[in-house]
Amino acid sequence: MDYSLLLADFERRHDLSGWPRQRTVHACLRAAILGGRLAAGHQLLSTRALAHELGIARNTVLYAYEQLMAEGLLLTSRRGTLVAQVALPAPAGETMERPASALSRRAQALTGIAMPGMLSSAFALGVPALDAFPMAAWRRALDRAWRETGPFEFDYCDPAGLPVLRKAIADYLQAARGLRCDPAQVVVTNGTQASLELCVHLFTDAGDTAWIENPGYLGALSAFRGGQLRTVGIAVDHEGIAPSADDWRKTAPRLIYTSPSHQYPTGGVLGMPRRLALLDQAEQAGALIIEDDYDSEFRHDGPPLPAMQGLAPAAPVIYLGTFSKTMFPAMRTGFMVLPAGLAEAARPALARLPMHGRVPEQRALAAFLASGQFLQHLRRMRRLYRERRDTLLDALDRHFGASAAVHGAGTGMHLSLGFTDAAWRDDRISDAARAEGIAVHCMTRHETGLRKTAWTGLLLGYSQVPALDIDAAVERLAGIARNTPV
Fold it and tell me: What is the DSSP letter of 159?
């Protein structure tokens, strides 16, 4: 090896102006090793010999050798100084054979979970009518909040959220959803997903058992898998979660995730006897129920059932809510209501966790709730969504007829469409529709456990689809369904 040529070539290819000589020699040898020009096992010259060949001080070479040894690139033996065996980086343009191998086991467990996309397309799920949001009123609330926010509030705020917002949320939930809560039980988060992950962090250990509806919400599955919980899919019937006696006996849970007011994705509504029974069984098992009340504000047919959290004193329920559906997703604001005892116990842990911030936005939201503008907005959205729901039902009846049956249309922002023809494959129809720009999800891809679910069909979100566009979109979807190979 001609080290003088090696060094000259390195200096020609790099701008080394201002570099000390010892740094240059170290970088040159390091690049040669990592680039494969100095192969594993290659014996380098002694420090004295290399210094003589390069015409530099021996201490300069000593520095370079010591640095490379500290980095694990050189080693010493009776033969002298040798290049160590190292895993060389892949050449430019090449990819790793298994790119997922760099991820943790937690992250790899999430890679197979499909998340929503195509949010601006017809029938996308969970997207409110953003063009109908009262932006002018919200800007005024923000402007006022910024004027009222003093410099001392730019520091880290209460990890559970701004007290004025927590009070406004508690007041709203008591009046609208029948919750038994006070502001001390409310925790403001960055949305439902953050709330779920916080539940896992605060109330479970790796290996604990968590129940989730099957089919169910994949975001909850993601949170449970990320927390290394043993996840058990519990069958869903026409009302919602339906655990059997065997489920309680063989897989007693620590957490039970459910969406009783509008089961996601089927749309079922858990009746009062079933709610009370689940509360009683959870208390006997020492389990916590996570009640995801994601879109219960939009009840189209009759009054909504009260939240499970308020049905019994000290109910073992963690109530989750979000403003992504009632306001807009970019707000990234949700909340959870903890049982009183757990709220007090969790406060020290909350102070150590990254939590929701943005004091002016929280202050603006509190004012929006307290002023009545939020309720006015909800009333307008209920009328709008009911109109779009009715238009969708008419279109489905006209274009699908007896080929499909609607479920879960009485509440929320989406309904499910079950197929009466067993030969229709919901996954293939979903893929074909998405290729045509229609964002429908299929029921079978919401399976959350090892047991197969009997539910098949499509999920149609209607809240962000103008009524005038619905009939044409359904007609296209029906054509795709009938022409997709079985």
Answer: T
414-419 and 458-461 as β-strands: parallel, antiparallel, unpaired?
antiparallel
What pLDDT, in 10s, does the model give residues 283-320?
999 999 999 999 999 999 887 788 999 999 899 999 99
- CA–CA gap between residue 143 and residue 133 (Å, rounded): 17
Half-sphere exposure in the Cβ direction for 362 (13 Å, CA): 26
Count Cα atoms within 13 angstroms, Cβ side, for 111.
Answer: 10
- What pLDDT, in 10s, does the model give residues 118-129? 555 789 998 999
Domains, the chain, in order of start with CATH, read 3-83 (1.10.10.10), 107-114+133-375 (3.40.640.10), 379-483 (3.90.1150.10)
252: enclosing H helix or E strand: none
What average pLDDT does range 204-228 have in this prediction?
A: 93
DSSP strand pairing (209-214 vs 230-235): parallel
Distance separating alpha carbons of residues 462 and 395, to the nearest angstrom: 12
CA torsion through residues 183, 187, 191, 197, sign? negative
Dist. CA 419–CA 481, nearest whole Å:
10
Count of CB atoms situated within 10 Å of the CB of 258? 28
What's the pTM? 0.77
Read off the pLDDT band of 78 (50, 70, 90): confident
Q: What is the DSSP string of 15-29?
A: --TT--HHHHHHHHH
Say how many C-beta atoms besides its own lie within 10 A of residue 372's C-beta.
Answer: 9
Question: Cβ neighbours of residue 163 under 8 Å, at least 6 residues apart?
Answer: 183
Q: Place 89 in a pLDDT band, splitting at 50, 70 and 90.
A: low
Give CA angle at 299 (408, 127), nearest 5°: 75
- The secondary structure of 228-250 as a DSSP string is T-EEEEEEB-SSSB---HHHHHH
CA distances from 110 to 100, 115, 186, 206 (A): 11, 10, 29, 16
Q: At a CB cut-off of 8 Å and minimum separation 6, what does 255 contact?
A: 199, 200, 203, 204, 208, 209, 210, 211, 224, 229, 287, 288, 289, 290
Other C-beta atoms closer than 10 Å to the C-beta of 257 total: 29
Query: Which residues, 6 or more positions from 240, have their beta carbon under 8 angstroms from its beta carbon?
Result: 213, 258, 259, 260, 263, 266, 268, 269, 270, 274
User: Measuring CA to CA, which residue among 326, 368, 464 is closest to residue 137?
Assistant: 368
Is 292 strand, coil or helix?
strand
Q: What is the 8-class DSSP label of residue 294?
A: T
Q: Which residues pair with 231 in a beta bridge?
A: 210
Residue 409, C-beta contacts closer than 8 angstroms, at least 6 positions apart: 267, 300, 301, 389, 393, 415
> What is the DSSP secondary structure assignment for residue 348, as one 8-state letter?
H
Radius of gyration of the chain (CA): 30
Q: Residue 467: CB partners within 8 Å, gap ≥ 6?
A: 387, 388, 391
